[in-house]
Design goal:
single chain; alpha/beta; 7 strands; SAM-dependent_MTases_sf; methyltransferase activity; Class I SAM-dependent methyltransferase; methyltransferase
């Protein structure tokens, strides 16, 4: 597979496969938003997608695995203050609260509807949880307010410029930023995955957003470029099918 020269002069122009992405990988991306990010999509459709994400995450143990990743990063802190960005349904924060008896969570999302739903749930009644509308690209919090910020399974929604900004903001308000997101497989594997999803995307909103998510996912190369632009150091763990796990820290 031929690779393109690294000629990214503006982070906004960076392909989702990174500066060294092949020509095929550059074709396997889109600027089309998911239903969740569109203003012209009925709220009932959006709520259905969020509910499906929650159910599937529960069914396949995704919420538990992500909670383990969060707890691993704060294992040496007695009463950790954790900020979840882009929480959506709040299942991750709910799991962390269940599994860590002294953790304090700020559970946030940019979407007021999602925040209202979380506030009306058990999260809103939990004395160790604060539910709030927060823009992850411009977090209204002082430097070092949290021990950990986490952005799980939503990072691909961001444009490259927004993603770099979230890395900068997340590592400003917290000692570390943990990003858990979809993997971007090699192009041939990616094509096969898209072919499997595509027929369902025509009639099932959840599959539609899954298809778009796959096309908008970032490669490790892209994540390193975003981190460099944001002025942070990252450690990246990624498998072919497993979620990518990124731990970011601001450079000293």
């Amino acid at each position: 597979m031929a690779y393109m020269a690294e000629q990214i002069t503006d982070i906004a122009d960076m392909p989702r496969g990174g500066p060294d992405a092949s020509w095929l990988d550059r074709l396997l991306e889109t600027d089309c938003p998911e239903y969740l990010d569109r203003d012209d999509v009925d709220d009932d459709v959006k709520r259905g997608i969020v509910a499906a994400l929650d159910r599937i995450g529960t069914l396949f143990g995704e919420h538990d695995r992500n909670a383990e990743l969060v707890l691993r990063e704060v294992a040496d802190i007695a009463d950790p203050a954790i900020l979840e960005l882009g929480a959506g349904h709040g299942a991750l924060s709910r799991k962390v609260l269940e599994q860590h008896p002294t953790a304090h969570l700020t559970v946030s999302d940019l979407d007021p509807e999602s925040v209202a739903a979380m506030a009306a749930s058990d999260l809103g009644d939990n004395s160790r949880a604060t539910v709030a509308v927060i823009d992850a690209t411009a977090i209204d919090a002082a430097d070092g307010s949290f021990d950990l910020a986490v952005f799980a399974l939503s990072f691909h929604h961001l444009s490259p410029a927004q993603a770099a900004r979230v890395m900068a903001e997340g590592t400003r308000v917290a000692d570390k930023l943990l990003v858990i997101d979809l993997p971007r497989p090699p192009s041939t594997v990616h094509l096969l995955r898209l072919a499997v999803i595509a027929p369902f995307a025509l009639w099932w909103p959840f599959a539609h957003d899954g298809l778009i998510s796959s096309l908008r996912s970032y490669s490790p190369s892209a994540l390193r470029a975003l981190a460099d632009h944001a002025g942070v150091d990252v450690a990246i763990g990624a498998g072919l099918l497993d979620p990518q796990v990124v731990v970011a820290r601001r450079r000293s």
